[in-house]
Structure formats: structure tokens, C-alpha cells
């Protein structure tokens, strides 16, 4: 029988990781099918041969497929691609990275994928179209149902039963002997100590508080890998890491207003040498814009990730902006001075342990002068809950925090040294999130079109509707003053 031609369907983030595993296993892929990639372009030497329409021109008798669609909480595309094309007679091939460790007497379906550094212990049963992602650990006698995904760094202890169509978030821990029903979602960093019924989401405050990383660096690799990818994919060094341009624009407008207002207050109090520090400055987007509009400001940026810091240094003028290495969790790595304004944009949510988030807040207070201000642009569980409740009315899947995020509770900033200032635009993104994450996906679903972010439709409607109502945005804009 002649050897079939093998195509990878999907060349995005997961598709590239999968392709690397296939190549590392000395297997061949003849081409990549992806509507979002330019035909003729190459990934790891493999050519993009066409868009999704090509699936109608190949045949199960001569061609086989690899499922390159991953998931960040929504399993539908991953499952639908597999089911639809399997029903048309196509055979799907799996992959096992050579660095993965597989124990004795395991039953792993040939369509499933096991990524680099994963550990699968003895007598584990893995169903069809399953992904065991990077450095995930699956212990003895575990059973995993079809179409389920075990995210990077997740730990599944011995004797656990996981149903079909289950998503286990990054760094989650499933305690020994637990049973997780079909269609469940286990959020990143969650420890599951009790059985979970079908179609439930486990993402509560108590569970997040029980997440037990033994030291500061245990989850650093996950965060580093994410921002290394961002740094490597950024052609323009000072490009924002926020892909939603409406959100990015509102963030920048808010920061500029607060800087202007804070400077006025400082001038009134005869405090003229105004200093600003941007914690987690990333590639320097905010600092670049501030240096253009406020050339006399004393600006400092702190960035832990080396690639992002190098990106910022390429663009920012070192005579007006200092970019330093630092970790907000470790006060010793931060400048030994007090700042008038501290900017904290999506920094605390990148810390995957609650106690470390609290420690970071204390360190932010330590570098803020009395009566100085801190701008927090962070994501909260309450807004995400409201958003998902609205999505459920249209039959849309829940949105989970990204694998490198741990959202905050509403009372997180309750602190004796902090007083919240009244800002009118705390929930300025609510309408935009409802439009882009509820209304637009509902319309696309009705039309049979896959969900799409950053569309011209959502951007136009969000721009046209200037009033923001409700509390549907996880991301909130807050300003606090540091008390003596």
C-alpha cells in the first residue's frame, strides 16, 4: 500500500508545537493547511500549501491529517475538526515528542498528542484526539476521555478519571482518585480535591487560594515562555503586548489622563521633580508614548523578561527613560527610591499564586511615596463571571483566563495604606467586551462562522457606542493613593 501524504491542519501556536514534536520524532509532514497563513510560507521548513478549502480537494484514500488546533479553554474547534473530518473518512495521526516519558502498559490512542517533557506513568489510558501538553504529568492508572486537553504543567495524580471533552488548565492539580465528568473546565492553577460533575467549571476563590507553589520560581517557566514568545513575535520593539487595539487605546488614554491629573496635583503641592515607574513595562509601549508627550518626566521601566526588556531598550531613549531588570515579587530587585506615580498594567494577574500577588502589592506600596498614586489596570473574576453569564444566554462557551493569568477578586486592593480615588472610567471597557465577546460571537455563531477577535465590525460598533454600561469587562482601571 502506498504511503499516504500527511497534512497538518492548523499552523498557529499549538500547530507549531505539534509540528516540532513530529519533526523531532523523525516523521514527515508534507504540508500545512491554514487559512490565516500565507500560501507558500514555511514553518520549520514545511510549506503552507493552502487554506481550508484544500480539505475538499484531498482524499482519505491518499491523504492523512494531523489536528493542529489547540485550545485556551474552548474545545469546540479542536473537537469539531477531528469529528467532521473523521466522519469523512480521514485518518488522524498523533505524535509523541521524544522527550516525553511513557510508562509501561499504557493505552494511548494513535490520534492523541503528547508534547515535550510530558510524563505519562504506567497503565494510563488516553482516548482519541487528546492533548497532553508541555511538561504535564499524568500519573499511574489515570483514564482520559476523548477530545480532552491537559494544559502545560498540569498534574493529574494517580487513579484519576477524566471524562470526554474536558479542559484542564495550566498548572492545575487533580488530587488522587478524583473523577471529573464530561465537558468540564478546570481553570489554571486550580487544585481539585472533590469530584466534578458533568459540564461544570472549577474556578472558585477557595480553590485558587489552595494552589500551592513551593517557591517563587515554580511557575516562572510558564510566564517566561509566554513572554519569550511575545518578544520573539514582535517586529516593532515598542508594540503593545495587548492584541485588542480598542483595549490598548483605552488603557493608554487612561494612563495619560492620570499622569496629567497627578502632575497638576504635584505642582500645586510644590513637588516638581515628578517621577514615574512602569512595573512590567514589557516592550516599552507606554513609556515610549509618555516620553513623547511628557519629555520632562523622570521615567523608569521595570521588566523581568529578558527578551521584552531588550525590545524596550532598542526603542526607548536611555537619556530620558531607564529600563531596569526587576521582579515585583522581590523588593531587593526594585529601585531603592520612592516614586510619585506607579503604573501597574496587567502585572499582578501574571503572578500565579495569591500570596505572591499580595507580596507584590506590598512591594508596590514600598516604592510609592506617601500621597503618591498607583494606577492598576488589572483583570477581575467578577467581570469575567458577568461576561460568561451573558455568553451562556447565546449558548457560547465560557472564556477562561489565559494560561499565564490569575484574576483578582474585587476586594484584593483593600489595604490600610491604600485609598481608592474616584475615576469615572473604571468600567469604560464594559460595552466593548459585551460587543466583542458576546454580541459579535453570537452573530458569527448564527451564521456558522468561527469566533473571531479584533474584527472590523466589533471595532466599529465599540467606537461608535461611546457610553459604557454594565460590568462585563474583566479588565478594570483603578487609581489608588498611598496613605502615610
From TrEMBL:
Gene3D superfamilies to which the protein is assigned, alphabetical: 3.40.50.20, Hexapeptide repeat proteins, Vaccinia Virus protein VP39
Q: Where is the signal peptide?
A: none
Domain PglD N-terminal residue range list: 8-71
Pfam families reported in the protein's UniProt record? Hexapep, Methyltransf_25, PglD_N
What does the record list as coiled-coil region(s)? none
Task: List, alphabetically, the InterPro entries matched.
Answer: AcTrfase_PglD-like, Hexapep, Methyltransf_25, PglD_N, SAM-dependent_MTases_sf, Trans_hexapeptide_repeat, Trimer_LpxA-like_sf
Q: What are the Methyltransferase domain coordinates in residue numbering?
A: 276-372
Q: Name the chain's protein.
A: Unannotated protein
Lineage, top ranks: unclassified sequences, metagenomes, ecological metagenomes
Amino acid at each position: 500500500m502506498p504511503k499516504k501524504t500527511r497534512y497538518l491542519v492548523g499552523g498557529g501556536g499549538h500547530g507549531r508545537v505539534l509540528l516540532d514534536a513530529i519533526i523531532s520524532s523523525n516523521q514527515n509532514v508534507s504540508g500545512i493547511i491554514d487559512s490565516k497563513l500565507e500560501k507558500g510560507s514555511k514553518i520549520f521548513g514545511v510549506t503552507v500549501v493552502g487554506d481550508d478549502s484544500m480539505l475538499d480537494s484531498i482524499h482519505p484514500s491518499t491523504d492523512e491529517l494531523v489536528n493542529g488546533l489547540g485550545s485556551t479553554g474552548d474545545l469546540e474547534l479542536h473537537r469539531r475538526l477531528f469529528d467532521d473530518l473523521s466522519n469523512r473518512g480521514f485518518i488522524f495521526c498523533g505524535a509523541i515528542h521524544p522527550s516525553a516519558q511513557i510508562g509501561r502498559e499504557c493505552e494511548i490512542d494513535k490520534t492523541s498528542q503528547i508534547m515535550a517533557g510530558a510524563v505519562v506513568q504506567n497503565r494510563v489510558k488516553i482516548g482519541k484526539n487528546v492533548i497532553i501538553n508541555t511538561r504535564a504529568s499524568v500519573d499511574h492508572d489515570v483514564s482520559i476521555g476523548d477530545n480532552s486537553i491537559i494544559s502545560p504543567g498540569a498534574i493529574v495524580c494517580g487513579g484519576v478519571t477524566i471524562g470526554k471533552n474536558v479542559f484542564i488548565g495550566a498548572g492545575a492539580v487533580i488530587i488522587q482518585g478524583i473523577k471529573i465528568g464530561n465537558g468540564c473546565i478546570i481553570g489554571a492553577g486550580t487544585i481539585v480535591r472533590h469530584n466534578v460533575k458533568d459540564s461544570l467549571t472549577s474556578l472558585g476563590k477557595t480553590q485558587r487560594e489552595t494552589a500551592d507553589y513551593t517557591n517563587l520560581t515554580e511557575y516562572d517557566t510558564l510566564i517566561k515562555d509566554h513572554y519569550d514568545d511575545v518578544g520573539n513575535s514582535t517586529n516593532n520593539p515598542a508594540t503593545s503586548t495587548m492584541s485588542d487595539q480598542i483595549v490598548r487605546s483605552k488603557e493608554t488614554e487612561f494612563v495619560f489622563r492620570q499622569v496629567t491629573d497627578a502632575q497638576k496635583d504635584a505642582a500645586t503641592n510644590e513637588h516638581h521633580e515628578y517621577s514615574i515607574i512602569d512595573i512590567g513595562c514589557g516592550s516599552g509601549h507606554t513609556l515610549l508614548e509618555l516620553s513623547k508627550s511628557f519629555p520632562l518626566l523622570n521615567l523608569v521601566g521595570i521588566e523581568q523578561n529578558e527578551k521584552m526588556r531588550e525590545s524596550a531598550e532598542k526603542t526607548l531613549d536611555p537619556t530620558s527613560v531607564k529600563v531596569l531588570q526587576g521582579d515585583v515579587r522581590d523588593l531587593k530587585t526594585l529601585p531603592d527610591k520612592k516614586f510619585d506615580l506607579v503604573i501597574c498594567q496587567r502585572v499582578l494577574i501574571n503572578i500565579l499564586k495569591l500570596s505572591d500577588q499580595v507580596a507584590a502589592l506590598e512591594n508596590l506600596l514600598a516604592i510609592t511615596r506617601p500621597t503618591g498614586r498607583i494606577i492598576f489596570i488589572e483583570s477581575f473574576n467578577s467581570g469575567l463571571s458577568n461576561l460568561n453569564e451573558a455568553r451562556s444566554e447565546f449558548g457560547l462557551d465560557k472564556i477562561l483566563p489565559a494560561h499565564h493569568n490569575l484574576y483578582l477578586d474585587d476586594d484584593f486592593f483593600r489595604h490600610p495604606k491604600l485609598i481608592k480615588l474616584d475615576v469615572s472610567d473604571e468600567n469604560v471597557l464594559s460595552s466593548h467586551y459585551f460587543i466583542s465577546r458576546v454580541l459579535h460571537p453570537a452573530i458569527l455563531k448564527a451564521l456558522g462562522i468561527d469566533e473571531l477577535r479584533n474584527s472590523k465590525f466589533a471595532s466599529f460598533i465599540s467606537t461608535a457606542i461611546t457610553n459604557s454600561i454594565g460590568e462585563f469587562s474583566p479588565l478594570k482601571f483603578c487609581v489608588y493613593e498611598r496613605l502615610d
